[in-house]
Fold BAHD acyltransferase DCR.
Amino acid sequence: MAPEVAKKEEKMAGVKILSKAHVKPRKPIGRRECQLVTFDLPYIAFYYNQKLLIYKGGESDFEGTVERLKDGLGVVLEEFYQLAGKLGKDEDGVFRVEYDDDMDGVEVVAAKAEGIEVADLAVEEGTDKLKELVPYNGILNVEGLRRPLLAVQNSNLVSYGRQLYGAEQVTKLKDGLAMGCAFNHAILDGTSTWHFMGSWAEVCNGAQSVTAPPFLERTKARNTRVKLNLPMPSDSNGDAPSPAGPPLREKVFKFPESAIDKIKSKVNDSNPNPKPFSTFQALSSHVWRAITRARGLKPEDITVFCVFADCRKRVEPPMPESYFGNLIQAVFTGTAAGLLGGHPPEFGAGMIQQAIGAHDAKAINARNSEWEASPKIFQWKDAGVNCVAMGSSPRFKVYDVDFGFGKPEIVRSGSNNRFDGMVYLYQGKSGGRSIDVEISLEAGAMENLEKDEEFLTEVVA
């Protein structure tokens, strides 16, 4: 570890919890129950999904800021009340989301992290120095049976602790505020996560209610009841187990709008198909090829690309964009490393385009039926060797989440649910078509990737 990185990580040791509270919907809701469906259940053994938003504003009146955030949270939970509930099971052992006015609600933590500046957190490598700013490290979704579903830590803010499967943490910084959120991934996907975050920010900016309420009837998308028998994990201190194999490194590569346009133009100039490649398909091929080179695979080694496709408009009947829950499925394609690298970029882009295009309502239904006949609980490390898995999306307007003290300076994923080849895509801070690519790789492969001129040609250092 470089001395300057070690020094920054040492500075992170001083995060001090100031207070803990719970926030419930402002108005009584009564008893509500909602069955988890086939789109939700495979992720029950994943870890809580963590997001960290770092702001330059909000620190001058930290206590007042936290109270305003809690007030806004109480309003937004009137619609997103499932996040204030818990996991439960019905009489047949089928998982469900349960809410009752007597429950604690979302966990909100206020913390102080003196001596840390926004610039310390802007280094685009690693997650260790961010870890104390985000709650529920190493906590599995199944623990939502006894933990809040949302925890917000105010190492600046509240906990998604009692928001069904989420935790948010806000940390007071020397010159800003860090909001760390942990969401239970068994009850919501990225689209629902950022719908909630945007709605919360909207209320904090003066809206009296949520202008785009969530669609909560998840059984409209799938209504098959699946009983799962899962042992509860033993109590832990929240430290995620170290993955087997070589250590990982994480790094963010920033692709400005000009780079994205060049990558997309290059792959489409030689596209033999009548349908043009999308930005996602062009960038995915670029990243997949580069990671495969960095791994130094043999020509005959199989490499797999995976994307978690949003199925809201693919299912029959289609679901609204406001559907609250998981409505994603993993879509896979693969080939020999020699074929991927020996062909131009449009070869990989074509494979990705074909796999995504074939994932229609019929394919989704077949996947669900197969899983229901023989349920398999996925784990965060089940992607397999030589896999590149794309999560999140540059479509999510993460830099528009303004609670009244400015837009975030930095948006990052936490340390949960990372493995060799996990990639998160985010909207770039500069806006437009810029995209940030957050990659986790075995340390040796990351070193190779950092030297790959073909990959880095258009990247902002």
